[in-house]
Amino acid sequence: MLLVPCPNCGPRNAADLHYVGETGARPDPGTATPEEWRHYLYLKGNRAGLLRETWYCRSGCRRYFVLERDTTTNQFADPPLPGPEIEGKT
Amino acid sequence: MRQRPTRYSAAGLIARGTRNKPWPRVWREAPLRSSYDVVVIGGGVHGLATAYYLATNHGITDVAVLDKAYLGSGGSGRNTAIVRSNYLTPEGVAFYDRSLQLYNTMATDLNINVMFSERGHLTLAHTDSALRTMHWRAEVNKLQNIDSSVIGPDEIKKLAPSLDTSDRPRYPILGALHHPPGGVIRHDAVVWGYARGADHRGVEMHQNTEVTDIEVEGGDDPDGKGSGGRVTGVRTNRGDISTPTVVNCTAGWATLIADMAGVKLPISTRPLQAAVTEPVKVFLPTVVVSGSLHVYVSQTDRGELVFGASVDPYNNYNISGSLEFTEELAGHVLELMPGISRMRLLRQWAGLCDMTPDYSPVMGFTGVEGFLCDVGWGTYGFKAGPVSGETMAEAIATGTTPEMIEPFALSRFETGSLVGEKGAAAVGH
Amino acid sequence: MSRLLYQPGEVIDRSRPVGLTWNSKAIRGFEGDTIASALTANGVRIVSRSMKYHRPRGYVTNDYWDPNGFVQVGDDPNVRSAHRLVEPGMIIDAQNVWPSLDHDLKAVNGLVSRFLTAGFYYKTFMRPRKLWPAYEKVLATFAPGGKVDLDSPHHYHDKRYTHPDVVVAGGGPAGMASAAAAAEAGARVLLVEHHHHLGGHLLWGSADDRALARHLAADVAAAGVEVLTDSTVTGRYDDNWTAIVQRNHPVAVERLVKARAKVMIVAPGLIERPYVFAGNDKPGVMMSGAVRRFVNMYAVRPGTTAVVFTANADGDAAAEDLDRVGVEVARVVDARQGENIVRAHGGARSISSVELADGVKVSCDLLVTATGWTAPTTLLNMAGDRPAYDESSARFFPSRPIGTVLATGGIAGDGSADQLVEHARATGRLAAARAGAAAQRLQAATPRAVAVDGPEPDGLADTRAPLPRHPHPGLFRSSTHGIVDFSEDVGSKDLVAAAQEGYDSVELLKRYTTVTMGPAQGKLETVNAVAVLAEARGETISEVGTTVWRPPYAPITLGALGGRVFEPVRVSSIQPWHEANGATGILAGQWIRPDHYGDPAAEVRNTRRNVGIIDVTPLGKLDLRGPDVAKLLNQLYVNKWSKLAVGSVRYGLMCAEDGVVLDDGVTGRLGDQHYLMTTTSSGAGSVWEWAENWLQTEHPNWQVHVTPVTTGFTSINVAGPKSRTLMTRLVDGIDLDPEAFAYMQVRTGTIADIGGCFMWRIGFTGELSFELHVPAGHGRHVWEALLAVGDDLGIKPFGLEAQRIMRLEKGHFIVGQDTDGLTKAPATGMGQLVKLDKDDFAGKPELAWALEDAGAPVIVAIQPSDPRIVPDEAAQIVREHTDEIIGRITSSRLSPTLNRSICLGQVLPEAAAPGSELTVVLVDGRRVTARVMQHHAHFDPDGERLRG
């Protein structure tokens, strides 16, 4: 079970949170062309690597927040959790 | 010229067994050439079927199928091998029905026993609204001559005695959509059969060949890729290939491949997990699916129960799997079949699924000339493999989109005319 | 029962005999015996038949992984008999035999084995196609494994959660030493041992070995380590989320323990590898560990005359052990001297001789092999390691250092006992230090935790001296072919043939031949399979590579994984009354609620004639407060909210950003900055999160508090022409006069002496009605008060079914039933609600385009021409005389009020004009005609009753 570093509650089991999805900017609904709006609705970056994502701390503080996670390793960019990469000072 | 292909048969088994004579290679190994008429990226069921039908139906044989690992290493070898055609939308039903027909005759068409077990398929309804959706599917199916009907708990109990059809469970079984033509098939044999058939007709399969870039010129992007451009070749870890036609038949990596051509896809990649138990004597004669409980299960002829569930809750290219998947799965399976709590889970694994917003694929031409997609197959790609190959081959050979795949065009995400499979396919196995 | 004299390392209690039944025959063992040691002590040599050829099989590893030791114990299938301890009265039977273990008729398959090569079934049974189901049935009878008793109950057991600093997987010398050292350094340590006793291979070793085991176990106890025996770390998931199955729990069949370990130490030891040669699966061929466990731990003699084929010290020790207990060691064949064995001869019950490479045949009934080791790297694989093959030591080793997953013991290297213990202790200290650093990081990532001072602790660097790797001959296959996968009956010959056919990568080979797919999941088979493939390809083992080891490390019962289903059903505070008064319940989303109280049609008639009450507590309710509530409502709903007066309520339609209908409901303004919003029952949770999402991500400056109060109020709808009369008898402080309290208004006051109630004049039923929201604790009181004071008015409760009928009579659509995943607002007939002159609202651009789009199906009211025919919900609407679908019935009922069938449906615009005639296909295939109605409401389209 992935630990998700909620900026409010600290690291929590991913099951306590709800994954909202990739974070994207909402176009101005007054002026958006169909192409712009549907790009916002449907077209994702879906990167293999660091992805900006929105999470919702459903069973905790109920905050929405954005984190960067590497979708190939499941490591969050910040803050550093004690993942497999922890290597000591020499 | 190549030798006449060796046929598989009982007589052949006896003759070779007696004389201790080995069988020829199932597909040949050939050096990678610098040019092909068509390059198919992805050596799974979709890519191999596309190559096979290009050769058989259209005489296009100068084709290379590239896979970054071994043939069938992606979703084709990781799915739970369920096939069916009881979809919700008329376009979905027609499409999957053609696939089921091709699966039905595949053993003789490809001369390899793919072990299609037409054992029937039950989609359980635990709520009023689920039952209503089952009725909806049944009615659409019937109008298209698909054998599909809603049955009650008593009939369900006869088809699958291990199910708890009493009103005691948290999720009582109120009814089920019964689809007798559905079943399971040996997924790897389908891969090998298409590869062997394509090989017999001159197609080359290249394993451990990873595409690192796609060459496009004349496109709108600063690097010449993207809309308005045309494909000139691909680069791989084993050398460059020039080709006018590239088909993206990957799952899990579809967006990464499309990005190489400058084409944006409406895809989020999610792992789908599956698991298998130790074998026990066969007791479950049919495929059982529960949408509300996010589980599907069938028993192999070897006696193992094969389970699947819904996709993971967040995007991931990492398929290491999770414990919570097995916990939820077991909890829900025991809701359905409380008698199997002492069976043991033996192995879990995962594959990558490319999810689209409307639970329907992206097929056919794109804004880049010569770059075609057969992607976005979510959790239902395996069952569509044969018909996808057939229609993609037709698109490549004729240069026009076959009517059957028109609803699945990438352009629907620009016009907003999405396909309405969402209700039926959320856990649609 | 024949036992050796007392053995100093024995783990049986000879003072406690245990009676068992084996294949209906009574036998005896001792407490502490495994089933295998008891059977062997009773002279049993054949315990199972092989999967495909039904060849007789005896014990080969004599531990948990023994591929031949599966038995049925009562209703428990696939029990590992060399691991499971005996219990008094155990009923044990052989599995997968037909008709019996000693006379298995399927053994004739062995005669045609040359034709049944791996994957033979792919090449035959294709024609005639019709016969495949029959072939399939025959193949299925070869399914191995025991029998499931489908009537056995699911005894669920709660799971355990624990948060140790360090989990140690493996309780052999390395595991014990590292656990003790980590605990001495201050870490909280959980030590998990697969077998029944701590000690690992020391248990079946020499007197010195056993002394070391006792010493280390004392250290473990002194350091305060928690020990779980007969338990297995089955998986290491993200962030060291660790799964442990505990098999010896006093109550549970098995318990799942979930540990969030800061550091994991992987010390599973090594698994002895079988040797591939002709006859290697015959009864009497065993590995050195099997023999030594039988002799030293269970005082059981595994044979009378032995040949020992050895390449290492364990093989040598096995020969010594056998000699010591009086088994004649006819020959020691030393692989290190270039000696080899090529074939085991013999009959059904046991081998009779072994043929050596030089052609000499040595008579024996026991052949011991000691040809090397497999490193079980599952947990390291799961943490991202990919093991690398070391040719000189003839085994795989970890290749990547992983900060929070540390390997020690045999999996990491060789060495003297002292070296191994020192490496393990250093590993334990490193684990403790890194667990400290991990704790510090977790704390630092927790904003309101006590601030972390100073740098990370010292001692994080891996300064362990690497363990040496001892040379070992690379022994995999002799010059003959034998079995590689005992469980699957796959031989080296099969593998070579498959490789020649092109299945020549390890994954393809596995898939084609099923090698490594059995219960041991490759722990015994993988390296031999890779070696045979390498040989066939003329490559090295490194070049061929290995398969990925998948979890779980050891199988877990579904019961332990599943545990209890924590998905409670919600009920309103009135539910006990409903149950006591004959309600039939219906599961609606998370709720169970009354569907009816016997006769829903009568409930409809009574409500339309007199007055009825329905418990509508599941209705989602959100309390909204703050100066910017109207802005939020404008954002969420397609219609306008700025001018809603205090005391008024309004209907709202909510769409997603793609314009598809999400939810609907009414919202009332209770005060200047206080609103109560209602949602559909199923939307209660998601609408709340949707509102929070807008507030937090798009409009963080808006001041609104959203509080879900669904279960804070019990909600009752009072409907019918006499509802006002009824309410006047119970309400204080609210003027119920139609002028003072009009349709679509809300009031706050006291009902049946309960203060703080909200009451609004709306109704899904189309009758004059009052919806009451009562503090939940008083719900039943108010319900009973209504019934008591309304008796003379003819008050009766009504259920969900009556409400559904009445709402359909009124033509109200239900989100998710009459709408679907593509239905946008204009298609509901409420396009006029969409206010494009608002600056923004969810889905605005799509709705603007949808209002222009004339192609989408729309919701219409439909009446069949024959008023007695009620088409099923889901009946399709087709173009006349064709099968082309142009719509469907989404709701249908027989209206008790109109005494005819009524429907809502979706149809394409071309068929949606009032008066259009439709062809409806009934479920039985009949086609009937129906007509599109002028209004959605079949009854009282002008709403006169409602406003009364």
Which key terms come to mind for this protein?
heterotrimer, B: 429 residues, alpha/beta, eight-stranded mixed β-sheet, six-stranded mixed β-sheet, 12 helices, 19 strands, globular, disordered C terminus, C: 948 residues, alpha+beta, seven-stranded mixed β-sheet, six-stranded antiparallel barrel
Describe this entry's structure for a reader.
The complex is a heterotrimer of chains A (90), B (429) and C (948). Helices cover 10% and strands 30% of the residues of chain A. With 90 residues, chain A is mainly beta. Chain A is globular and about 45 Å long. Chain B has 429 residues and is an alpha/beta fold. In chain B, the strands form 4 sheets. Chain B has an 8-stranded mixed sheet with strand order 5-6-4-14-15-16-13-17, sandwiched between helices. A 6-stranded mixed sheet of chain B has the order 8-2-1-12-19-18, sandwiched between helices. Chain B has a 3-stranded antiparallel sheet with strand order 9-10-11. In chain B, helix 3 (90-104) packs across helix 10 (381-398). With 948 residues, chain C is α+β, with helices and mostly antiparallel strands. In chain C, 57% of the residues are buried. The chains are: A mainly beta (90), B alpha/beta (429), C alpha+beta (948).
Low-confidence stretches of chain A: 86-90
User: What is the percent of helical residues of chain B?
Assistant: 25-40%
As laid out across the biggest beta sheet of chain B, the strand order is 5-6-4-14-15-16-13-17
Based on secondary structure, the structural category of chain A is mainly beta
Average pLDDT across residues of chain B?
93
**What integer value in Å does the Rg of chain A equal?**
16 Å
| Largest sheet strand order of chain A | 3-4-5
Q: What's the overall geometry of chain B?
A: globular
Oligomer: heterotrimer
Beta-strand percentage range of chain A? 25-35%
The radius of gyration over CA of chain B amounts to: 22 Å
Separation of the first and last Cα atoms of chain B? 43 Å
The count of DSSP E runs of length 2 or more, i.e. the number of strands of chain A, is 5
Distinct helical segment count of chain B: 12
Helix fraction of chain A, binned, reads 10-25%
Mean pLDDT of chain A: 88
Beta-strand portion of chain B reads 15-25%
End-to-end gap of chain A: 30 Å
